[in-house]
Design goal:
alpha/beta; five-stranded parallel sheet; globular; 174 residues; single chain; 5 helices
């Protein structure tokens, strides 16, 4: 029924909680799992990566610097270097997620990918291009103004996907 499962992840603990569900579904259907990270390329980003990726200086851009959890750097940051660092960080995230899926009995075959774009669009495009049968992703369970302001990648994927989408809500504590 499900031969190819797409597991979009942002590397968060909530997203990691989805791994158990993905592993169980992959085992039940002997499915291949595609682990996907999306570098959010929108100028005003509230999506998966926390990055501002415009070529003009915006005054504030994200940089996944290991010394600084805020990831914020000032004017003059090179957009290409930032983009490259975010792709590299995405590769680390998908490799860690794939390794977590392979940890245990009957590990699924996994493929990893890092895409750049608007998260929900990149997820949907990847699903179409790779003949995905099921998308399994986390949701933060935001409501009200927070959901309106931040949007919901999972909600957009659910509404627009041509294939079934299973969402797993992260614990409210996370």
């Amino acid at each position: 029924m499900y031969q190819t499962i797409l597991y979009p992840t942002d590397g968060s603990e909530g997203s990691a909680a989805v791994a158990d569900h993905v592993r169980e579904l992959a085992a039940a259907f002997d499915a291949t799992v595609h682990v996907l990270y999306v570098v959010d390329a929108r100028g005003a980003n509230y999506g998966l990566s926390g990055a501002f990726l415009t070529d003009e200086g915006s005054g504030v851009q994200a940089d996944p610097a290991p010394d600084d959890d805020s990831g914020m750097v000032g004017e003059g940051t090179d957009a290409a270097a930032t983009r490259s660092a975010l792709v590299e960080r995405g590769e680390e995230i998908v490799e860690a997620a794939a390794a977590a899926l392979r940890d245990g009995e009957a590990p699924p075959e996994t493929l990893t990918a890092v895409e750049t774009g608007t998260p929900h669009s990149a997820i949907l495009e990847y699903a179409d291009e790779n003949d995905v049968d099921l998308v399994v992703m986390g949701t933060h369970g935001r409501t009200g103004v927070e959901r309106y302001l931040l949007g919901s990648v999972a909600e957009k994927v659910v509404r627009l996907a041509d294939v079934p989408v299973t969402t797993v809500r992260a614990d409210e504590d996370e």
